Amino acid sequence: MRTSPNIIITGTPGVGKTSHCELLAQNTGLKHMPINQIAQDRDCVDGKDEELGSLLVDEDKLLDAIEDEVKQGGYIIDWHACDLFPKSWIDLVVVIRCDSTILYDRLEARKYSAKKLEENMDAEIMQVLLEEARDAYDEEIVVELQSDKIEDVEGNVDRIEQWIENWKEDNKEDREEE
Ligand code: ADP
């Protein structure tokens, strides 16, 4: 049984996943797991979508590569997809959201191609990641947090930290009852 929770921080590219994960890791000691980087480091990449410039990840290979670690608990999984991770591994799914005009500026600053920009804008407006999270996990573990202004990151991370404290307290009680 995990003594520290596993949290997915997900959302459309540019909403602020990495900013949240880094601050949360710094404040809590939970370990940041940026899947984009891990997939490359652990040879779980199948190729690249040339048009979109995004990596094609071999999901089964990736899950095998991270399973032993994640099952220990205490990981913050950072990726723009979430439904591949088994329910039994995950304690909280945070979907970061961003106002579409603000997101447009952030993605433009990244010099995304027109197609990639449009695809990501559509995904945010259609709340694709929120739906994916709600379909894949129990609704009580899925939370949506807004990240438009810089102060939002700190406020959101405070809320997640509070949630982690509550999780630890509840799980300590469960263990003591066993
Ligand atoms: P993601 O990991 O979802 O792609 P990042 O954390 O890399 O997003 O953030 C994308 C860009 O937006 C970065 O330049 C970051 O500094 C900025 N950013 C993220 N969150 C906020 C926020 N709440 N307010 C202002 N800028 C933000």
TrEMBL record:
<keyword id="KW-0690">Ribosome biogenesis</keyword>
<keyword id="KW-0808">Transferase</keyword>
<comment type="similarity">
    <text>Belongs to the adenylate kinase family. AK6 subfamily.</text>
</comment>
<comment type="subunit">
    <text>Interacts with small ribosomal subunit protein uS11. Not a structural component of 43S pre-ribosomes, but transiently interacts with them by binding to uS11.</text>
</comment>
<comment type="function">
    <text>Broad-specificity nucleoside monophosphate (NMP) kinase that catalyzes the reversible transfer of the terminal phosphate group between nucleoside triphosphates and monophosphates. Has also ATPase activity. Involved in the late cytoplasmic maturation steps of the 40S ribosomal particles, specifically 18S rRNA maturation. While NMP activity is not required for ribosome maturation, ATPase activity is. Associates transiently with small ribosomal subunit protein uS11. ATP hydrolysis breaks the interaction with uS11.</text>
</comment>
<dbReference type="InterPro" id="IPR020618">
    <property type="entry name" value="Adenyl_kinase_AK6"/>
</dbReference>
<keyword id="KW-0418">Kinase</keyword>
<feature type="binding site">
    <location>
        <position position="17"/>
    </location>
    <ligand>
        <name>ATP</name>
    </ligand>
</feature>
<keyword id="KW-0067">ATP-binding</keyword>
<keyword id="KW-0698">rRNA processing</keyword>
<keyword id="KW-0539">Nucleus</keyword>
<dbReference type="Pfam" id="PF13238">
    <property type="entry name" value="AAA_18"/>
</dbReference>
<feature type="binding site">
    <location>
        <position position="149"/>
    </location>
    <ligand>
        <name>ATP</name>
    </ligand>
</feature>
<feature type="binding site">
    <location>
        <position position="19"/>
    </location>
    <ligand>
        <name>ATP</name>
    </ligand>
</feature>
<dbReference type="GO" id="GO:0042274">
    <property type="term" value="P:ribosomal small subunit biogenesis"/>
</dbReference>
<keyword id="KW-0547">Nucleotide-binding</keyword>
<dbReference type="GO" id="GO:0005634">
    <property type="term" value="C:nucleus"/>
</dbReference>
<dbReference type="GO" id="GO:0004017">
    <property type="term" value="F:AMP kinase activity"/>
</dbReference>
<keyword id="KW-0378">Hydrolase</keyword>
<dbReference type="GO" id="GO:0005524">
    <property type="term" value="F:ATP binding"/>
</dbReference>
<feature type="region of interest" description="LID">
    <location>
        <begin position="109"/>
        <end position="119"/>
    </location>
</feature>
<protein>
    <recommendedName>
        <fullName>Adenylate kinase isoenzyme 6 homolog</fullName>
        <ecNumber>2.7.4.3</ecNumber>
    </recommendedName>
</protein>
<feature type="binding site">
    <location>
        <position position="16"/>
    </location>
    <ligand>
        <name>ATP</name>
    </ligand>
</feature>
<feature type="region of interest" description="NMPbind">
    <location>
        <begin position="34"/>
        <end position="57"/>
    </location>
</feature>
<dbReference type="GO" id="GO:0016887">
    <property type="term" value="F:ATP hydrolysis activity"/>
</dbReference>
<dbReference type="InterPro" id="IPR027417">
    <property type="entry name" value="P-loop_NTPase"/>
</dbReference>
<feature type="binding site">
    <location>
        <position position="14"/>
    </location>
    <ligand>
        <name>ATP</name>
    </ligand>
</feature>
<feature type="binding site">
    <location>
        <position position="110"/>
    </location>
    <ligand>
        <name>ATP</name>
    </ligand>
</feature>
<keyword id="KW-0963">Cytoplasm</keyword>
<dbReference type="GO" id="GO:0005737">
    <property type="term" value="C:cytoplasm"/>
</dbReference>
<feature type="binding site">
    <location>
        <position position="18"/>
    </location>
    <ligand>
        <name>ATP</name>
    </ligand>
</feature>
<dbReference type="GO" id="GO:0006364">
    <property type="term" value="P:rRNA processing"/>
</dbReference>
